[in-house]
Amino acid sequence: MIKKRLEITAVTGFARPACMIVSNASKFKSTISLNYKGVSVNLGNSPHSIMELMSLKIKPGTYVEITATGCDERAAIQTLVNSLIRNLYIEREKRGDSGTFSKKVCSSCYEAVFMDEASRS
């Protein structure tokens, strides 16, 4: 399981980020959820997940936590973080994230997964 805490910086509503997050999460086999103020939303049920995310009323300056569990959890988290940064919903982390990943094959599902180079040592 991997958890990533992110500060939301966008001053717009959360409808577009919600659609983007759910769309990206649906590409992975891992179970992915977003937690905000004690409420957890499973991102695997597309239409329902979008509505649940929007109902959380996530505001700029607040933090969310994205959790992924499964054989492609690292790639899932990295993809979500990168798309949020690219679309200016969060800022790039200023401390120790190496961002360097290597490709491996998952032993349980035999699909390509990405491993964080910093955690390998």
UniProtKB/TrEMBL annotation:
Keywords: Cytoplasm, Phosphotransferase system. It is found in: Cytoplasm. SUPFAM superfamilies: HPr-like. The keyword Nucleus does not apply. One of its GO terms (cellular component) is cytoplasm. GO terms for biological process: phosphoenolpyruvate-dependent sugar phosphotransferase system. InterPro entries: HPr, HPr-like, HPr-like_sf. PANTHER family: PHOSPHOCARRIER PROTEIN HPR, PHOSPHOCARRIER PROTEIN NPR. This is HPr family phosphocarrier protein. It comes from Peribacillus deserti.
